[in-house]
């Protein structure tokens, strides 16, 4: 008997065989959860990412998630190859691009931005601009202007927290409150007192 003889190797059990249809049997809700998970856990190691996504899916295993991701990757790669062939340009498939495409193409209607999200986005954008201005002030030694900017940032953060608490989606109401609190004492310790309530 030789180890290379195919007749001596045990037959693969039916449970272990790859079923081609596994990657295809996904509901739109499951696909939305997968897309959200790929975006949310994009910095995690692959196996951890798949495990966390699978834990959110009632009828899917880590293997199912991995197979679906592999299927999506191949599908997007083939699509790009065809586009590249037709456009006669060389393609480089980037995992982040594919994740972004999957997330964007599979957004469920309940995940579309709401009006509150627009307000949140605007406040975050304002804070980003304010932090950029603070950074510019630091490099140009205009430090006194930064205290007013910090007050504006604090006001925006308060508004963000208020919006988050008031406009919690029904599914999130059973979650514990956010553990992070705005530390006003810390901010007050290095900002001078102000009589400018219109900035808050």
UniProtKB/TrEMBL annotation:
Signal peptide bounds: none
CDD domains: SANT
Gene3D superfamilies: Homeodomain-like
Disordered: annotated span: 1-22
Source superkingdom: Eukaryota
Polar residues bias: start-end ranges: 1-11
Name of the molecule in the record: Myb-like domain-containing protein
Protein species of origin: Microthlaspi erraticum
Lineage: Eukaryota, Viridiplantae, Streptophyta, Embryophyta, Tracheophyta
